């Protein structure tokens, strides 16, 4: 992550990226991996952001995505408008009580129309941002 940020910052400033410690030049072509250090770091403990339990870094991502009972999840009826999101261990209780599967077709059409309008506004915003970013040079003060 830090490596990418260094390269991106230097690119924006139109400068050569340098190491913040030793000031040596850094580039994709000069970069090499230290597998021994990567392996050692993967065994260091890291804290789950949801349940605060400690895991080796190599197992943390899997725990947070698949195993953690406190990870944030969404209702399976989100696609038809259910806004609920909460810890995974509460999901089955919510889905058994969720009112969205019992809504009428007209109610669902209203919800879907509202979702379409929101998505349309988001797309207009993204398109304007992409349009601005497509300029050859952007000046700032």
Quick structural overview:
The chain has helices at 2-12, 35-42, 57-67, 91-97, 105-133, and strands spanning 45-47, 54-56, 72-74, 85-87. The chain is mostly helical and 141 residues long. It starts with a helix and ends in an 8-residue tail after the last helix.
Mean pLDDT across every amino acid position: 86
Give the overall silhouette. Answer: flat
- Pattern of helices and strands: HHEEHEEHH
Question: How many distinct beta strands?
Answer: 4
**Class by helix and strand content?**
mainly alpha
Please work out how many helical segments DSSP would assign. 5
Radius of gyration: 23 Å
Beta fraction: 5-15%
Can you tell me the number of structural domains? 3
Fraction of residues in H or I helices: 40-55%
The unreliable regions are none
- What strand order characterises the main sheet? 1-2
Structure description:
This protein has 141 residues and is mainly α. The protein folds into three domains: 3-43, no CATH class; 44-69; 75-124, no CATH class. The chain is built from five helices and four strands, in the order H-H-E-E-H-E-E-H-H. It has helices spanning 2-12, 35-42, 57-67, 91-97, 105-133, and strands at 45-47, 54-56, 72-74, 85-87. The protein has a two-stranded antiparallel sheet with strand order 1-2. It has a two-stranded antiparallel sheet with strand order 3-4. A hairpin with a 6-residue loop joins strand 1 (45-47) and strand 2 (54-56). The protein is flat. It starts with a helix and ends in an 8-residue tail after the last helix. The mean pLDDT is 86.
């Amino acid at each position: 992550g830090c490596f990418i940020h260094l390269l991106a910052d230097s690119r924006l400033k139109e400068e050569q990226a340098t190491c913040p410690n030793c000031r040596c030049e850094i580039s994709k072509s000069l970069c090499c991996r230290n597998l021994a250090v990567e392996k050692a770091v993967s065994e260091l403990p890291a804290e789950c952001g949801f349940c605060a339990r400690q895991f080796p870094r190599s197992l943390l991502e899997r725990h947070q995505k698949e195993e953690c009972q406190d990870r944030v999840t969404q209702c399976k009826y989100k696609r038809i408008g259910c806004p609920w999101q909460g810890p995974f261990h509460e999901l089955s209780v919510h889905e058994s009580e969720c009112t969205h599967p019992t809504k009428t077709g007209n109610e669902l059409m209203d919800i879907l129309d509202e979702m379409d309008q929101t998505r349309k506004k988001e797309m207009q915003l993204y398109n304007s941002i992409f349009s601005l970013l497509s300029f050859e040079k952007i000046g700032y003060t």
